[in-house]
């Protein structure tokens, strides 16, 4: 019966976690677009496909796949230059002035050039692909691919582009690339430029620094002639959009300035130079960008050369081309190989022969450029589809067939030039069809938000949160049935999954596990929502539906709202301790307010003589105040280990986060090392002290022995490893091999010890002196007026407490005989803390390997972590009344404070929710040589380092329920202090045995605790998801919100797994205690 | 009796608010370059001094607790000295609490301390005036059933709302709007004084206008 309850509680928790996972997965599928990055490179020597290269260019010096048309390029990148900013203004009615808007018709020089030199210049409307953020666009404009937020395979530690790109091809070919402007390029192409002038792009309010900086260097550099490619990235227009929006007069000024720049550049151009003016993306009506609306993706592209480029005059309406078309075009015009991953299509017009009047040769030239391009794209597709499966197979086949047909046609054309004209008419469209098909296919899978998935994912998350709230409330109601709770949703979930699978099978679509999971989640959520709405119909009071007390609700709301502001997300490291401190002070004040801190006589008013004391004060006022102040102090100290986010340049990270090995100066290093080892020893001593106080370290059970002997060995191992790691460079050469070996063995040994300790704990979780108990009772009779073997649960329920009492008396008797002076506490206290002792031991065993993954000085934070959670538990226990015989509840403020503290520890262990801040060195602890080809082990190590606090606090969550029972022991102890109370019939405090006595309430309380914790965490992930979807046009979405969502999601998964393990551990202990009692009963029967 | 008390209460609160508002405008006649944003430290000093003065004068004039049995000079002097000591102690306590809440330890120590002084004038000074240097009475007033008179009730409400206002003042700090007032404020946690004052005023105003009507049922019950 009880076992069934336990299983159903665990299954229910797993199912709720699954609901959250399904929501997260679905949302992620719609929001985070992913793509695999290939590291292959194109080179001059390797043509992209078989067939002779056109025009016999191989012999020419400096020529590559194609002979170069231009030796120099000036690329002017005006950030956020929307197409209509550059569009020539034509008044439709002559004589009437056109519509006057600040951004219209300000680039007059473009219009003039187009009118005067129609064969030299061309304006295009280039379509950028989402996400329209500058960094992604720069990647696209140099690699020719469709960058997504996560380009899998890229190095998270830096933003440097690893894919083949134009800049890399230029430097390989020995061209001098000079850059000036936005410093994003510095991160993307470190060390690629022969000369560079970077200006900070961080401050969006600053319109002029970057532009003026460029203008200072642009003309002198150009005149000096020491360049082949000159890139100038102006930011003023973009910043003006963010600050004022396009409709502000400032925009007109900025655009006029750009016009001036273009004009001056045009005057300085020589015949062998191509001028490219391009906007990387557009902007919305309000001046923002990032999404996929028409205004954001339409950007201007303007080409000009003093030499004639085009055979015909420009069309009336500028042509629309994809933005990445520029990449293959520039590559071939400059005589470079097209970057390997490019999927853009060359602008065929540019490859026609201008001087040659014969249209036939022009078309042939265009066809050969297109064919080269198509060969390269086909090669990329082949390589990519071999490495990743995210492209549609059918479409891929269709495109490959198309390409082979076009290629065959092209070869035939080359071999038989007599029927060329007719053949050209079919080859060029075929090649273009192939290239556009590839682009459409890639766009489909790489660059489109799926709003439906996002919405449904967020809805599932919200419903799961609601479910947690609802069931955590039901769990304490008296007629609560575990089986119905579990079986119904499982059945519905299975039904949903089967229906979905059937539907998909009939429509012959591919089975997507994410969608299947989501359908199962929705299916199983429906009956709950149905039941909830039925309850709503029966007019329950609203207060019962929202059981969270006011201040905690406010706190959760603040936390929820804070995820929607990028400033608050960035400042979360400082905001969380503030909120936690507020909650702690609130707890202390509330204790005082409710009169639990002071003896009632102080609070009653003597004159009026009325008093309503709310129960006897269990805590001394000074003690509670001390706990509060101690907690604040701990939090403040932990805040010293703070890493700054990149977004706040003024902030300086704590120097204590770096490993000791990076320190110079022996004395300081030694002192720090001493402090770190001191922290380790203090941690060990604190845990042992606690176990000695609440349990007993003298028991011969294996886990206790392990705590006594194994833990010090682990501390020694850790200290030795730190000594080696911090002083490895100073070791004498003879000992190098030894040191290297030890630094491999020691961390693994510590981890192995911890694992074996956990195994021991799971194997024999009850650490009570069984021998003494089983040996004794033969001399006495059982006190119970009950005979015969206990056959039913009712019998057991009746007998077990009696046996428990009896056992205590036995111990008393024995102890009195042995040592008459000693107080009678041993056995009962051991049994009274059996659950929490197991949890604390497990936490300590987990903490040591996690500690090893961090830098040495973080050990101080781990010490603070244990200290502050201890203080918090004590403070919370003061406010939680024990209601025997149940139902037991854990108040919301306890759960929220616990979750807040987990977040605070995440930050104070030197983490930040951005990818460059991940502690990559954790992957090399115990594996100094790296991991070879395996990826899961380093990922596991880095993940354990990053989410250590989530894991520890989630596993320790059951302590919130157990601690008030532990604190119960303090009251009677004090009263026992005066001597001569041996005769007093004092009841030994039952402590955690109260929980065991009512298994139904115990299980319900565990379920409730788990659900409340999941709710508090679920609210956070829901807020992150909503923020990411609502603000997907925000400037900071890829820099702040998306990484925050990812970290929060992974943190949630780690936390839920930890919570499950923690509760399972408590249940395992409970089962062991029960079987222990049963053995006792059987022994007494005999 | 109750009605007159409530009326007097209303007037005292109005006076307090007036003194805060006047402390914004009056000094600009005497001091050059005075403005809340630029010379916020000076303004804070003036503000807290004026509030303290108003509180003291009101205490002497209104005498809400006219139950001091002994009235010898030495008793009064020791009482006054005790009050000063209590005030200083509360300033230092607040300072320590702000530092614990994240204010920088060494930089901006002046701002932080001035903030502590301001908060003390809004919370400790009224307590001292009304209850005297008597910690037990303070503890009594700030617990659930400890209020005995209209005066104590208003004291409870205004003090708690001052703390809440100070707490709310921390929220605009991380925002990056780059407004001039925010630059002053976001210098550090200690610097969020300005906002606190506005919150104090606003909080005080709403409560004080509401106080008479709101408090009467409880008064009658007592």
TrEMBL record, chain A:
GO terms for biological process: GPI anchor biosynthetic process. GO terms for cellular component: endoplasmic reticulum membrane. Pathway: Glycolipid biosynthesis; glycosylphosphatidylinositol-anchor biosynthesis. It is found in: Endoplasmic reticulum membrane. Keywords: Endoplasmic reticulum, Glycoprotein, GPI-anchor biosynthesis, Membrane, Transferase, Transmembrane, Transmembrane helix. InterPro entries: Alkaline_phosphatase_core_sf (IPR017850), Phosphodiest/P_Trfase (IPR002591), PIG-O_N (IPR037675), PIGO/GPI13 (IPR039524). Its main location: endoplasmic reticulum. The chain crosses the membrane at residues 451-472, 484-505, 511-530, 542-563, 575-593, 671-691, 706-725, 737-763, 834-853, 860-882, 947-966, 1013-1033, 1045-1067. Belongs to the PIGG/PIGN/PIGO family. PIGO subfamily. This is GPI ethanolamine phosphate transferase 3, catalytic subunit. It comes from Equus asinus. The lineage of its organism: Eukaryota, Metazoa, Chordata, Craniata, Vertebrata.
From TrEMBL, chain B:
It is found in: Endoplasmic reticulum membrane. GO terms for cellular component: endoplasmic reticulum membrane. It is a multi-pass membrane protein. It holds the Pfam family PIG-F. Keywords: Endoplasmic reticulum, GPI-anchor biosynthesis, Membrane, Transmembrane, Transmembrane helix. It comes from the Eukaryota. Pathway: Glycolipid biosynthesis; glycosylphosphatidylinositol-anchor biosynthesis. The keyword Nucleus does not apply. The keyword Transmembrane helix applies. The chain crosses the membrane at residues 9-29, 41-62, 83-106, 112-131. Its main location: endoplasmic reticulum. One of its GO terms (biological process) is GPI anchor biosynthetic process. InterPro entries: GPI_biosynthesis_protein_Pig-F (IPR009580). This is Phosphatidylinositol glycan anchor biosynthesis class F. It comes from Equus asinus (Donkey).
């Amino acid at each position: 019966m009880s076992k069934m309850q336990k299983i159903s509680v665990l299954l229910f928790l797993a199912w709720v976690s699954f609901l959250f996972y399904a929501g997260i997965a679905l949302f992620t599928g719609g929001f985070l677009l992913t793509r695999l990055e290939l590291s292959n490179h194109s080179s001059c020597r390797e043509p992209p496909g078989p067939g002779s290269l056109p025009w016999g260019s191989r012999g020419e010096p400096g020529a590559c796949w194609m002979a170069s048309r231009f030796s120099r390029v000036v690329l002017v990148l005006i950030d956020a230059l929307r197409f209509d900013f550059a569009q020539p203004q034509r008044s439709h009615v002559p004589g009437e002035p056109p519509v006057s808007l600040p951004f219209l018709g300000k680039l007059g020089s473009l219009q003039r050039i187009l009118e005067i030199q129609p064969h030299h210049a061309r304006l295009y409307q280039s379509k950028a692909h989402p996400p329209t953020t500058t960094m992604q666009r720069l990647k696209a404009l140099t690699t020719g691919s469709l960058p997504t937020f996560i380009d899998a395979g890229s190095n998270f530690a830096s933003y440097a582009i690893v894919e083949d790109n134009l800049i890399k091809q230029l430097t390989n070919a020995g061209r001098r690339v000079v850059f000036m402007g936005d410093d994003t390029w510095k991160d993307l192409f470190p060390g690629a430029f022969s000369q560079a002038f970077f200006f900070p792009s961080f401050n969006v309010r600053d319109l002029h620094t970057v532009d003026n900086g460029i203008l200072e260097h642009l003309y002198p550099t150009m005149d000096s002639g020491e360049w082949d490619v000159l890139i100038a990235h102006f930011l003023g227009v973009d910043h003006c959009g963010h600050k004022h929006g396009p409709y502000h007069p400032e925009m007109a000024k900025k655009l006029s300035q750009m016009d001036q720049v273009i004009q001056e550049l045009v005057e300085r151009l020589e015949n062998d130079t191509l001028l490219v003016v391009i906007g990387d993306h557009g902007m919305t009506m309000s001046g923002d960008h990032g999404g996929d609306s028409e205004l954001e993706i339409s950007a201007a592209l303007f080409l000009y050369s003093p030499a004639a480029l085009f055979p015909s005059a420009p069309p009336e309406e500028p042509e629309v081309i994809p933005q990445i078309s520029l990449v293959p075009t520039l590559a071939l015009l400059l005589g470079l190989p097209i970057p390997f991953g490019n999927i853009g299509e060359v602008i065929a017009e540019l490859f026609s022969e201008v001087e040659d009047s014969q249209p036939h040769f022009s078309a042939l030239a265009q066809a050969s450029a297109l064919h080269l391009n198509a060969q390269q794209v086909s090669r990329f597709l082949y390589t990519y589809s071999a490495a990743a499966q995210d492209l549609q197979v059918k479409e891929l086949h269709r495109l490959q067939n198309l390409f082979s047909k076009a290629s065959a046609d092209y070869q035939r054309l080359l071999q038989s030039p007599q029927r060329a004209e007719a053949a050209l008419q079919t080859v060029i469209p075929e090649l273009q069809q192939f290239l556009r098909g590839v682009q459409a296919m890639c766009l489909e899978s790489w660059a489109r938000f799926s709003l439906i998935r996002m919405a449904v994912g967020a809805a599932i998350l919200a419903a799961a949160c609601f479910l947690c709230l609802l069931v955590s409330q039901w769990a304490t109601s008296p007629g609560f049935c575990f089986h119905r709770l579990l079986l119904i949703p499982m059945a519905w979930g299975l039904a949903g999954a089967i229906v979905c699978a059937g539907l998909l099978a009939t429509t012959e679509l591919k089975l997507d596990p994410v969608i299947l999971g989501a359908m199962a989640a929705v299916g199983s959520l429906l009956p709950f929502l149905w039941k909830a709405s039925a309850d709503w119909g029966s007019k329950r009071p609203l207060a019962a539906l929202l059981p969270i007390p006011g201040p905690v609700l406010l706190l959760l709301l603040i936390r929820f709202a804070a995820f929607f502001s990028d400033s608050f997300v960035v400042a979360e490291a400082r905001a969380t301790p503030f909120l936690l401190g507020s909650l702690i002070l609130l707890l202390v004040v509330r204790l005082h307010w409710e009169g639990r801190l002071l003896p009632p006589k102080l609070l009653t008013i003597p004159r009026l003589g009325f008093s309503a004391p709310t129960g006897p004060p269990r805590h001394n006022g000074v003690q509670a105040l001390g706990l509060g102040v101690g907690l604040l102090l701990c939090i403040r100290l932990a805040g010293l280990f703070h890493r700054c986010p990149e977004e706040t340049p003024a902030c300086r990270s704590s120097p204590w986060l770096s490993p000791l090995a990076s320190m110079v100066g022996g004395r300081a290093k030694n002192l720090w090392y001493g402090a770190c080892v001191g922290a380790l020893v203090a941690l060990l001593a604190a845990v042992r002290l606690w176990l000695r106080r609440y349990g007993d370290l003298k028991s011969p059970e294996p886990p206790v022995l392990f705590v006594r002997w194994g833990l010090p060995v682990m501390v020694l191992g850790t200290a030795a490893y730190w000594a080696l790691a911090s002083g490895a460079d100073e070791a004498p050469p003879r000992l190098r091999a030894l040191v290297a070996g030890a630094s491999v063995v020691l961390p693994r040994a510590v981890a192995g010890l911890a694992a074996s300790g956990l195994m021991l704990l799971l194997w024999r979780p009850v650490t009570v002196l069984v021998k003494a108990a089983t040996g004794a009772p033969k001399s006495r009779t059982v006190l119970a007026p009950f005979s015969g073997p206990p056959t039913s649960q009712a019998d057991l329920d009746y007998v077990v407490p009696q046996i428990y009492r009896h056992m205590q008396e036995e111990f008393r008797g024995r102890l009195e005989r042995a040592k008459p002076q000693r107080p009678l506490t041993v056995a009962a206290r051991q049994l009274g803390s059996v659950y929490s002792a197991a949890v604390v031991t497990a936490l300590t065993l987990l903490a040591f390997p996690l500690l090893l993954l961090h830098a040495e000085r973080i050990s101080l934070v781990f010490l603070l972590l244990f200290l502050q959670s201890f203080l918090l538990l004590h403070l919370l226990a003061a406010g939680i009344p024990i209601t025997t015989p149940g139902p037991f509840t854990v108040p919301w403020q306890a759960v929220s404070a616990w979750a807040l503290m987990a977040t605070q520890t995440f930050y104070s262990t030197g983490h930040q929710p951005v990818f460059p801040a991940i502690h990559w060195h954790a992957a090399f602890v115990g594996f100094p040589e790296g991991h070879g080809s395996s990826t899961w082990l380093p990922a596991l190590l880095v993940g354990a380092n990053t989410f250590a606090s989530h894991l520890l606090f989630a596993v320790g969550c059951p302590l919130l329920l157990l601690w008030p029972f532990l604190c119960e022991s303090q009251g009677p102890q004090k009263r026992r202090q005066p001597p001569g109370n041996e005769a007093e019939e004092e009841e030994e405090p039952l402590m955690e045995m109260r929980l065991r006595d009512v298994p139904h309430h115990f299980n319900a309380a565990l379920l409730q605790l788990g659900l409340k914790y999941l709710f508090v965490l679920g609210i956070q992930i829901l807020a992150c998801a909503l923020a990411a979807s609502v603000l997907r046009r925000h400037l900071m979405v890829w820099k702040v919100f998306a990484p925050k969502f990812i970290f929060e999601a992974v943190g949630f998964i780690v936390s839920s797994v930890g919570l499950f393990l923690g509760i399972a551990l408590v249940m395992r202990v409970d089962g062991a205690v029960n079987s222990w009692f049963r053995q006792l009963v059987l022994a007494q029967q005999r | 009796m109750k009605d007159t008390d409530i009326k007097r209460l209303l007037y005292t609160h109005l006076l307090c608010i007036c003194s805060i508002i006047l402390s914004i405008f009056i000094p600009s006649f005497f001091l050059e370059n005075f403005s809340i944003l630029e010379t916020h430290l000076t303004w804070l000093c003036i503000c807290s001094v004026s509030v303290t003065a108003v509180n003291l004068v009101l205490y002497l004039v209104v005498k809400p607790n006219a139950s001091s049995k002994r009235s010898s000079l030495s008793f009064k002097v020791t009482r006054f000295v005790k009050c000063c000591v209590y005030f200083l102690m509360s300033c230092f306590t607040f300072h320590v609490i702000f530092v614990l809440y994240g204010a920088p330890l060494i930089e901006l120590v002046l701002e932080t301390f001035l903030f502590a002084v301001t908060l003390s004038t809004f919370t400790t000074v009224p307590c001292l005036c009304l209850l005297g240097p008597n910690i037990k009475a303070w503890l009594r007033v700030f617990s659930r059933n400890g209020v005995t008179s209209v005066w104590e009730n208003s004291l409870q409400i205004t003090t708690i709302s001052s703390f809440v206002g100070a707490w709310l003042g921390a929220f605009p700090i991380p925002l990056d709007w780059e407004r001039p007032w925010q630059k002053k404020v976001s210098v550090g946690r200690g610097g969020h004084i300005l906002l606190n004052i506005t919150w104090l005023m606003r909080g005080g105003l709403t409560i004080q206008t509401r106080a008479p009507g709101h408090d009467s049922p409880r008064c009658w019950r007592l």
